[in-house]
Records
---
Amino acid sequence: MSSVEPSSASRPLRVAGLAALGVAAVALVLGVVTLFANGSEDPQNGAQPGPSSTTSADPAQPTTSSEPVPPTSTSAEPPPTTTPSSEPPPSTSAQPPPVTSAQPPPAQPKAAVRVYNNSNIKNLADHAATDLRNAGYPVEEVGNYSSGIIPTTTVYYRPGTDEEAAAKALARNFGIRAEARFEGLKDAKPGLIMIVTREYKAGSGKDGGNSK
């Protein structure tokens, strides 16, 4: 019995078929690989997103970062200290008005005086009258007083009148006494009465009087 060998014409066909099967197997493998590869692609390319090892950040959950967060100080910074100024605060009190030098009031006219000599020194009343005029006192009369003895030079005034203040001022200027009128002078006309005695010194006035 003899075996039948295939003809030379069918041998190339068998090789071509095997080659086609090999190509189909390679294509199948490539297709499977491509399918799995597409499954892991980005959803933007049309593939469904697969499971990922990293989860998307949930807006409701706080995000964590791998970088260390610097610690925040809970203590408030102290307020800046202000150095008190050496200058005193401005005064709020009202400043006093500037002092203006007012003109002194005009001097009041001095009281008129009547001068009488009660000594044996001649012209002593005239010397006293000169001193009074030099001191600014008007002299109305000069004479002698012989109705009694006056112990010391005195200027007399009517009590309770303006003559009292004028008589005391004259007495201070001349260094003599000032007294209310006594009985023998009560009826004399108004005005100051100056009776000089032997101890009176000419030029006694302190307001610029000088003797002759």
---
Amino acid sequence: MARAVNGGRGVDDRGLQRFPDRPERRLALTFDAFDAHHHTLWLRYAHTQVGSRAAAEAVVDALCARLLDDWPHVLVQESVPQYAWAILKEEVARWLGEHDLEPVLVDTAAFLAAIRKLLLYEMRDQFAVLQGEIGLYAAISRLPERQYDVVVLRYVLRIPDEVVAEYMGIEVATVRSHVRHARRRLARDLDVRETKTEE
């Protein structure tokens, strides 16, 4: 991944910034550890929004460059994962804007299997089930931003509530509240009967 050269910092043969003195080296190590812990989830989320692995990698590269360029400032934030999440969302929006696209939810069998756990409902026939799945994409995209993020993180990416709460800077109870509200709204928008499911 390419990194911007900043001040006296150079770039090594892996494309990572070199930090010549010990305090800066420690900063680089903390960034590397943070990135290693979150990078896969960032990529998976970006992929659900921009539709391809290459585009997701471009988005996450831009996120990492921004975080690394201002890493000392990032470290003093109240929640570093929440701050990084906000930057990730900015980079997704920027990429989509530059390509004149709307967010997409990747259309895969895995997505459909995961999202069915959000709304389990009884349908009269297979045609109605198919219509519900097609309409589900549009209905999810119309959710308020926080409900949308919770649905994608929790059901599509299968992230535990505690991690969702950390990323979004909210309480676990609020995550569950967003799920309840999203389920009700989706049931209403899709004109289906919501059933009681395990949250």
